[in-house]
Amino acid sequence: MPTIVEGLAKLVERLEIVERKIDQVNSRISNTLFEIRDNLQQNSRQNASHEQNPYQYSRPQAPLPQRQMYQVICADCKKQTEVPFKPGDRPVYCKECFAARKAGNGPITAPKSVAPVAVVEKPSKAKAKKKK
Fold it and tell me: Which of 25, 45, 53, 121 minimizes the number of CB atoms within 10 Å of its CB?
């Protein structure tokens, strides 16, 4: 019958073997992780040096059509202005008055009846914006 000392000696021996195996697995995992990291860094450097403009091979687009502008009179300040839509039966505002109304600084009392906005002139063509 084995004695307690012999049993403990076998147990210590087995624990040492398990500890060595754990160290081996840890070193393999560490090496693999370092290799993966190095490969990723190398690939990202290569991709960055060879990266091309994604729009380089895209089909050229036709220039945007000129937007039709309408001359109107602002419902608040009565200043003549241009808008990119055909005015209807609702009031139309210049940029400044529209921004003030949007910010909540509009007139305190709203008009009771709103007359349709009259178009001042025939529609004019706005200048096309140049792309940079």
Answer: 53
